[in-house]
Amino acid sequence: MTTTQSFVPSVHSTTAMVQAVDVHKSYGRLEVLKGIDLEVAPKEVFCLVGPSGSGKSTFLRCINHLEKIDAGSLSVDGELVGYRRVGDRLHVLRDREVARKREEIGMVFQRFNLFPHMTALQNIMEGPIQVRGESKAVARERAMALLDRVGLKDKYGAYPGQLSGGQQQRVAIARALAMQPKLMLFDEPTSALDPELVGEVLDVMRGLAEDGMTMIVVTHEMAFAREVGDALVFMDGGVVVESGHPREVLTNPQHARTKAFLGKVR
Amino acid sequence: MLATNTQVTESPKAPRPHDGSGPLKVVPVRRYGTWALGVVVLVLLALLVRAFAGADIEYALVAKYFTASPILWGVWHTLELTLLAMCLGLALGVTAAVMRQSGNPVLRAVANGYTWLFRGTPLLVQLLIWFNLAIVFKTVEIPGLWSASMNSVMTPFVAALLGLGVNEGAYIAEIVRGGILSVDNGQREAAAAIGMSQGKLMKRIVLPQALRVIVPPLGNEFIALLKYSSLAFTISYSELLHSANKIYTANFKVIELLFTASLWYIVLTTVFTLLQQIVERRLGRGHNTQTKGFGRRLATNLMPPSWR
Ligand SMILES: Nc1ncnc2c1ncn2[C@@H]1O[C@H](COP(=O)(O)OP(=O)(O)O)[C@@H](O)[C@H]1O
Ligand SMILES: [Mg+2]
Questions:
Q1: What pTM was computed for the model?
Q2: Taking a C-beta distance cutoff of 8 angstroms, is the pair A24, A71 a contact?
Q3: CA–CA separation, A90 vs A79, rounded Å?
Q4: Closest atom of ligand 1 relative to the A58 alpha carbon
Q5: How sure is the predictor about A7, in pLDDT bands with cuts at 50, 70 and 90?
Q6: How far is CA B214 from CA A54, B217, B270, B283, B284, in A?
Q7: Which residues lie closer than 8 Å to B175 by C-beta, 6 or more apart?
Q8: What is the pLDDT averaged over residues A220-248?
Q9: If both were cysteines, with which of A238, B25, B209, B259 could A55 make a disulfide (CB 3.0 to 4.6 Å apart)?
Q10: For position B173, what pLDDT does the model report?
């Protein structure tokens, strides 16, 4: 289970929000990530596209350490994920330290994963109160402001089961934002939604991008990627096949695999 | 009945006639087999009742002892023991179940060992071992702080409480574990993603959701425990069966007193079955879980556990 980390984070990594160098990840014998290299700049909307099973979710989960990488290096805001550097040694972080790092990274899931036994407001207040130890009053005020921001101010008392998919996903975004993250990860946030509800979620994400949030978005919404994205990576079979500006890659793909994939999602 | 169906003036249940001559008669399926079987059962029941009525049993005594003070004390002790053992079992069971989810292999091994050991040996044997610990440990002590002779500590009550509670905990651990596993993994991920520690995540997110799955079988466990508490008779704890036994060894009215005790057990299981149903209705509110009817549930609770 020991990992050899034979590298040191390179100098220019301090400017990147996320930097991946030769990231490998296997589940048992199945190698899911086969050496991912990429860099996400601050305030960038970074789109990750690719066929199902290509390792997009796995890569996102590695960024906030829900999964541990096997080899390579992954750093967020200049700090290695899962390790603390002391001199020339890397100490594996304790669970508590990992949890603290996760506070700074918001995550939005395909299936929303709201806490069903809590109201929309309670869902959003849960992190600030339980994790940050904020007072109820402070947490509540910010939660209400966030609900307002995602256009659901009047739904504060509703339970997830009483909300539509689009509304649930907007609450989930507000829940992540309540921790005031410096990076947001979106894992196919509109894939579980009825087509007519996709727009309301994308609108919220567009607003976030305009406010300068750094976002990594796994999506099949090519129109969104083209319009809002600053960079796009096409992944297939655990490797980055092609990357560039969304407009370039989407209108003029270079690789056959990219062409085939784009032909299917359009 | 449809609210919009205003033309029907006759019985709303009867289908409307096609020719306007009046309601048609509905002939249900005739179930002769059911009737025949019912008659057979009634006859057998009557024979059984006659046999017991003709037997040398003083039924007046059953009623008389039902409210006798030693029996009432026995009922109270049975309830007390059951409640406390259940509390101990819950504490141990939840702890063991959470430990089994832990990332720490030592904690996991301890929890696994606990359930394996206490589910793998008969409860009666466990009770006897607790009660007889004094043979091998003469004293219990916290070095430098406190010490006492094992005989004075391991009273029948303490032995019964530990025996039933520790055993129950092993079963409850499995139930709670099942409940924890029933919670969608996405819930754990979402909680972890906002920076919750493992402990908090369990307490705030997973266990509250697991509760709906956990509570119904816990009710069954409680009722089973109520009946298993009669095993404490063997280590002479003064519960219901022991009280009955004390009386019939003096007056030889064995069956009468066993009937009295049985009657009490039936009353208690019935009352708790009703309570269990009320709790479940509350818990299931807003969810579309089907709860079993009272009759079915009572039948389950009166069955020996091995039949369920
Ligand atoms: N926890 C896991 N255990 C084993 N295999 C997994 C696990 N999670 C994902 N996989 C496998 O890893 C591969 C990549 O999955 P994923 O990252 O979810 O792809 P994507 O999000 O691009 O569809 C798939 O083949 C999937 O079956
Ligand atoms: Mg995925």
A1: 0.79
A2: yes
A3: 11
A4: 17
A5: very low
A6: 38, 6, 21, 11, 12
A7: B93, B97, B214, B217, B218, B221
A8: 95
A9: A238
A10: 96
Q: Enter the tokens of residue B41.
A: 């059962």
Helix (H) or strand (E) holding A99: helix A95-103
Q: What is the ipTM of this complex?
A: 0.90
Residue with the nearest Cα to atom 3 of ligand 1?
A: A27
In this prediction, residue A159 carries a pLDDT of 95
Q: Which of A96, A111, A127 sits opposite B194 (nearest CB)?
A: A127
Given a cut of 70, is residue A162 above it in pLDDT? Answer: yes
The one-letter amino acid code at B219 reads G
Alpha helical stretches, state H, chain B = 32-54, 59-66, 69-100, 105-119, 123-131, 150-153, 156-182, 185-193, 198-200, 207-228, 240-251, 254-284, 294-302
Q: Does A27 touch chain B (CB under 8 A)?
A: no
Question: A84: which 2 tokens?
Answer: 């603390």
Tell whether B209 is within 8 A of chain A (Cβ).
Answer: yes
DSSP letter string, B194-255: TT--HHHIIIIIIHHHHHHHHHHHHHHHHHHHHHHGGGGGGGT--SHHHHHHHHHHHH--HH
Beta bridge partners, A76, equal: A18, A79
- For chain B, which residues score pLDDT lower than 70? 1-21, 284-308
